[in-house]
Amino acid sequence: MAVNPNTDFSSGAVYTADQANRFPRGVMGAVYRTAGNVGVTTTQADVTGMTVTFTAVASRTYKATWTVTGLKDTSNGWVGAFLANSSNTIFGAVYQTCFIVAGGGYFNLSGITYFSNLTAGSQTLKLRCQTENAAATILASGSNPCVLMIEDCGPA
């Protein structure tokens, strides 16, 4: 996807609204889960408290980043973290995170995805997790929070 470039400015030039609208708008929403562990099963489910709602503008590029730490309770197998909208449609499947984890082992799932297909208005994005077998636990603490952040990168 091409990004509409910003204009170079020179002394005395007139700064326009169109030029200002090409700048990235930064963080649109973020959530930090700092307490309370969350169980993960073989059925993909929302990670409680890891939802961001923001007002999107059509034809802009957004970036989502996330990180969670967890523990694979028993049995070797994969654990995955996925970004979804309020209808549970997964965003950016190519960039999702998933690791094979030894039973009793800790893991860190971090991911990033870019998208420019949002319609204007209120949008809700959330983090979902799933494990291949048995169970896993997403851990959260003040020194090791789960994080989901949505940023505006500029025009699509």
Taken as a percent bin, the fraction of beta residues is: over 45%
Number of helices: 1
Secondary-structure element series: HEEEEEEEEEE
Low-confidence parts: none
Between the first and last Cα atoms, what is the distance in angstroms?
7 Å
What radius of gyration results from the CA coordinates?
18 Å
Outline the biggest β-sheet: 6 strands, antiparallel
**Mean pLDDT figure:** 88
Structural class: mainly beta
Number of beta strands = 10
Give the overall shape.
Answer: elongated
Task: Describe, in plain words, how this protein is organized in 3D.
The chain is mainly beta and 156 residues long. The protein is 3% helix and 54% strand. It has 1 helix and 10 strands, in the order H-E-E-E-E-E-E-E-E-E-E. The longest helix has 4 residues. The radius of gyration is 18 Å and the shape is elongated. It starts with 16 loop residues before the first helix and ends with a strand. The mean pLDDT is 88.
